[in-house]
């Protein structure tokens, strides 16, 4: 909302802010600060104070439920603007804070008499001006404010848009990720730049089967029929499992036809061809996303090869994997449209350079065979200025080379292929050394075991003073309930998840899948805990991009960790 306000109501809003502050616009130090709505009260208060925020844009719901209690801790705050079209009372709010509706701010900024003579209506920024302080979702500890200047945004978007052929006014983009996510923010600004239409949605209203769509009503994709879509792997994994679940419910003839068409098109794609006749059979699957999607971009986390191939085949469009971070304006690499390989994230964008740095402790070096490996470093005009008021982090994660170019140390481990494409193979923070000396990549284990039909989400965990891995699992409710019925187990969903028999059944399938994809013995979880509670950003166990918050998950399941490590 903050960025939409900036783009579409910039002149009116800044005129209004000047009036609210009763000062010249030229004296206003203007930049935006974004926070995820799911950040805890303590994290939000920390960020607001760190940036010295004076004006806050939010919704009535968030204002009443999350912000009201921390407002006395924000001495710099002067004005709150809420976007809902209703009135709220200022009773119970700290003195000195004025509360306005968005509608009233727009009206105030639009009045010509509110522009004093001699004031500029528009102050043009320069490339080095601070545009946004974007707070990370806090997957590890306290959130950090990434300082993004205008030239960072332009550089990052130039690189991203170059990989999307034919981007223009005929395209329609469906926006449902938070604008506080760098991928969504840059995608929407790019759409505005190229004249694309934008339709606003949410994860709960995307398709006809979404949780907040009334039975018989149409989802946003069906109505909007988008041609472009960005998604995080978690969303694509859900689509994959839902479709394959529907396939299992088909009659024998339909199921056989689907599998034959899927297998034939898979072979054709591997050869670099399409299968137009088979696409007719996937028409109903394509309709789940409106039937008009010509390109999908996945970012935020590694996309499993199986899910990527499924989206390629059933939605009849290229699925590009991208790699980037908030610290690089979301830009780094994106796969070419014609590249149908899986597991890779593409070649560097035109806005940046990538190099690999040896990480001897983890066993990754540029001399590795068959391809060089190491920590991924990204350099270029898209690399941001560092973390706000965090000099120690700047020195640790950012550096400037002898040519004056800014670089960021990502902490991700990459493997460079001969054609210049990058593959993410590990993450430094996800690597745990077991008691016997073996290194376990938690991310690798999680990515592999998501192929289990009984698993919706998984978090692997290991202690350095133990010699085996354990896991917390959100099971697929439909599949596990059906399996429980076969075993003669009845009860509530929570009771089914707490049954030791069901834990053993899930563990048995995990071992089968792990063996088939050749995980090492020490990588396979020995004990698991089934969680009846799904992990959503609202629970605080995953970020808004559905990345695992390992620290929060560890604290949440501390008793289960003690139980599973108490006996093998």
From TrEMBL:
This is long-chain-fatty-acid--CoA ligase. It is an enzyme of class 6 (ligase). GO terms for biological process: long-chain fatty-acyl-CoA metabolic process; neuron differentiation. InterPro entries: AMP-binding, AMP-binding_CS, AMP-dep_synth/lig_dom, ANL_N_sf. The gene is LOC107561285. Its EC number is 6.2.1.3. One of its GO terms (molecular function) is arachidonate-CoA ligase activity. It comes from Sinocyclocheilus grahami (Dianchi golden-line fish). Pfam families: AMP-binding. Residues 1-16 form the signal peptide. Keywords: Fatty acid metabolism, Ligase, Lipid metabolism, Signal. GO terms for cellular component: endoplasmic reticulum; lipid droplet; plasma membrane. PANTHER family: LONG-CHAIN-FATTY-ACID--COA LIGASE, LONG-CHAIN-FATTY-ACID--COA LIGASE 4. Residues 32-388 form the AMP-dependent synthetase/ligase domain.
């Amino acid at each position: 909302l903050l960025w939409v306000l900036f783009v579409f109501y910039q002149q009116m809003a800044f005129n209004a802010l000047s009036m609210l502050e009763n000062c010249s616009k030229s004296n206003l130090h203007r930049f935006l600060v974004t926070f995820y709505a799911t950040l805890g009260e303590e994290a939000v208060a920390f960020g607001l104070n760190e940036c010295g925020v004076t004006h806050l844009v939010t919704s009535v719901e968030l204002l009443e439920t999350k912000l009201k209690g921390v407002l006395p801790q924000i001495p710099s705050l002067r004005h709150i603007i809420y976007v809902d079209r209703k009135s709220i009372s200022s009773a119970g709010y700290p003195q000195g804070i004025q509360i306005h509706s968005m509608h009233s701010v727009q009206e105030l900024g639009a009045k010509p008499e509110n522009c004093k003579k001699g004031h500029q209506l528009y102050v043009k920024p320069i490339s080095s001006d601070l545009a946004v302080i974007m707070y990370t979702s806090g997957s590890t500890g306290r959130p950090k404010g990434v300082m993004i200047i205008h030239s960072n945004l332009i550089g990052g978007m130039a690189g991203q848009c170059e990989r999307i052929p034919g981007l223009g006014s005929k395209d329609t983009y469906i926006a449902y990720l938070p604008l506080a996510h760098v991928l969504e923010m840059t995608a929407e600004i790019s759409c505005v730049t190229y004249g694309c239409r934008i339709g606003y949605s949410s994860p709960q209203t995307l398709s006809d089967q979404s949780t907040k769509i009334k039975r018989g009503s149409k989802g946003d994709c069906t109505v909007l029929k988008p041609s472009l879509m960005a998604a995080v792997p978690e969303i694509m994994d859900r689509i994959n499992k839902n479709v394959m679940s529907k396939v299992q419910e088909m009659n024998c003839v339909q199921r056989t036809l689907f599998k034959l068409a899927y297998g034939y098109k898979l072979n054709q794609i591997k050869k670099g061809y399409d299968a137009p006749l088979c696409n007719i059979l996937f028409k109903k699957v394509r309709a789940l996303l409106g039937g008009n999607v010509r390109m999908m971009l996945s970012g935020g986390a590694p996309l499993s090869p199986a899910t990527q191939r499924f989206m390629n085949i059933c939605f009849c469009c290229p699925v590009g994997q991208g790699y980037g971070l908030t610290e690089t304006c979301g830009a780094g690499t994106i796969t070419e449209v014609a590249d149908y390989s899986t597991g890779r994230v593409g070649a560097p964008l035109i806005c940046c350079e990538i190099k690999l740095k040896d990480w001897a402790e983890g066993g990754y070096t540029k001399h590795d065979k068959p391809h060089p490996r190491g920590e991924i470093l990204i350099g270029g005009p898209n690399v941001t200025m560092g973390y706000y008021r965090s000099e120690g982090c700047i020195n640790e994660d950012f550096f400037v080379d002898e040519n004056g170019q800014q670089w960021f140390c990502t902490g991700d481990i990459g493997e460079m292929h001969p054609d210049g494409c990058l593959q993410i193979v590990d993450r430094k923070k996800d690597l745990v050394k077991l008691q016997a000396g073996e290194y376990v990549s938690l991310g690798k284990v999680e990515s592999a075991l998501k192929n289990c039909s009984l698993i919706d989400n998984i978090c692997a965990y290991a202690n350095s003073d133990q010699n085996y891995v354990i896991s917390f699992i959100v099971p697929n409710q439909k599949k596990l309930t059906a399996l429980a019925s076969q075993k003669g187990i009845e009860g509530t969903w929570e009771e089914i998840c707490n049954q030791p028999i069901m834990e053993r059944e899930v563990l048995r399938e995990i071992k089968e899948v792990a063996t088939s994809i050749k995980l090492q013995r020490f990588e396979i979880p020995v004990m698991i805990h089934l969680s009846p509670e799904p992990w959503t950003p609202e629970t605080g166990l995953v970020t808004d991009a559905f990345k695992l918050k390992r620290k929060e998950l560890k604290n949440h399941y501390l008793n289960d960790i003690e139980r599973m490590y108490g006996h093998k």
